[in-house]
Amino acid sequence: MTFKKPLFVTGIGTGIGKTIVSAILVEKLKADYWKPIQSGDLDKSDSLTVQNLISNTITKIHPESYRLTQPFSPHKSAALDGITIDQDTIHLPKTDNTLIIEGAGGLMVPLNNEFLIIDLIKKLGTEVVLVSQNYLGSINHTLLSIHALKSYGIPIRGIIFNGVEDISSKEFILKNTGVALLGHIPEYKMIDKTTIIDAGSHIDL
Fold this sequence. Notes:
This protein is 33% helix and 19% strand. By secondary structure, the protein is of the alpha/beta class.
């Protein structure tokens, strides 16, 4: 199924698999990909990672609005680069395809002194795919993220769990939030083009 409304992939924190999930969705939907802000690792950016993990020839990788040289929160990275991120310069790229957008860190990550990732999601008018991962504290982080999205009036397409499964945690989160389950991506020993395609079979949009 193809969705023309952009989907913004965000997570309950940093390092929980947003880029992998983005690659899975891009490949499954043959969608375009856009990372508005890249902080550090410019030679192995998330855009490059997604490009190297997908197999289809339809996807277009749109250039970042900001490419920051330092691997910190965007507001700090921008300051170190001698600039200030201006949210008014960040606009959805033009495409007739479904667009998968990947955020930076979690919802409350600052882009400048007044503007957060969640504000950017609201500005862009997208639906959200929330990525969660099981660890001690993940229930709290997941519920807080969903509460924040709902308080901003941001539509949540659903939640994807990534990695080792904890049925108790997953059932609690789903029961107490009412958010749709889009799937659970199993833990893979290696992530490559083959596993990205396989992981797509675990996602139901």
